[in-house]
Amino acid sequence: NAGVTQTPKFRVLKTGQSMTLLCAQDMNHEYMYWYRQDPGMGLRLIHYSVGEGTTAKGEVPDGYNVSRLKKQNFLLGLESAAPSQTSVYFCASSYPQGLQETQYFGPGTRLLVL
Amino acid sequence: LAKTTQPISMDSYEGQEVNITCSHNNIATNDYITWYQQFPSQGPRFIIQGYKTKVTNEVASLFIPADRKSSTLSLPRVSLSDTAVYYCLVGVPPNDYKLSFGAGTTVTVRA
């Protein structure tokens, strides 16, 4: 049981390049999330998904797209990377039980955009 | 959408009890209160969750007064390994998941 895994762990991009971050979970969780964390700051929600085939915007969705084609995977895409997207990206998944919820986080992907 | 306010930082010494208070004045009737811990270069980890009164597990205790407008995370007898950022979240998925983790409280434990 690997929990939540993220690929890649680290990436350097040039401005304007595109890339996809992969998040995978093996806990059969319904909900999945993508956050970004900038130095010295908390996590800000980019997009989330409450089930296969559905996605929704979080607090900071601009410049990112997501897809949830399979329940266990949640992809985060950057179509044209900008230096402002340099950050650490965390994926999380959860299985709400009534009004309670516990999120399980991946180890993060460090992205540097030059 | 319940906004939370926590102290930016707290210092403590090994063996002491650390109490972190989170204010959430506009908490909704259905909202649970959840605390996460984050070590450097790692993703956050769930610590404890509660709705009212007191909740205790092997790691921490969570105290919630009757009006639920605040909550206090209590870490008993901290060690150096408890140095981390602690986040308070209030909300119910998925509607409140436009909410994000605030800056949290950086707890530094010294020898």
Short description:
The complex is a heterodimer of chains A (114) and B (111). With 114 residues, chain A is mostly beta strands. Chain A is 0% helix and 53% strand.
Structural write-up:
The complex is a heterodimer of chains A (114) and B (111). By secondary structure, chain A is mostly beta strands. In chain A, 0% of the residues lie in helices and 53% in strands. Chain A contains no helices and eleven strands. In chain A, the strands form two sheets. In chain A, strands 2, 4, 5, 6, 9, 10 and 11 form a seven-stranded mixed sheet that branches. Chain A has a four-stranded antiparallel sheet with strand order 1-3-8-7, with no helix packed on it. In chain A, strand 7 and strand 8 (73-78) form a beta hairpin. By secondary structure, chain B is mainly beta. Chain B is built from no helices and nine strands. Chain B has strands spanning 9-13, 18-23, 32-38, 45-50, 53-56, 61-64, 70-75, 84-91, 105-110. In chain B, the strands form two sheets. Chain B has a five-stranded mixed sheet, with no helix packed on it. A four-stranded antiparallel sheet of chain B has the order 2-7-6-5, with no helix packed on it. In chain B, strand 3 and strand 4 form a beta hairpin. Chain B is globular and about 40 Å long. The mean pLDDT of chain B is 90.
- Proportion of strand residues of chain B: over 45%
Share of helical residues of chain A: under 10%
Q: Which sheet architecture does the biggest sheet of chain B show?
A: 5 strands, mixed
Average pLDDT figure of chain A: 93
E-strand count of chain B: 9
Q: What oligomeric state do these chains adopt?
A: heterodimer
How large, in whole angstroms, is the Cα Rg of chain B?
13 Å
Query: Which pair has the most extensive contact?
Result: A-B, 30 and 25 residues
The strand line-up of the biggest sheet of chain B is: 1-9-8-3-4
Q: Element order, helices and strands of chain A? A: EEEEEEEEEEE
Poorly predicted spans of chain B:
none
**What is the straight-line distance between the termini of chain A?**
36 Å
Query: Could you tell me the radius of gyration of chain A in angstroms?
Result: 13 Å
Count of β-strands of chain A: 11
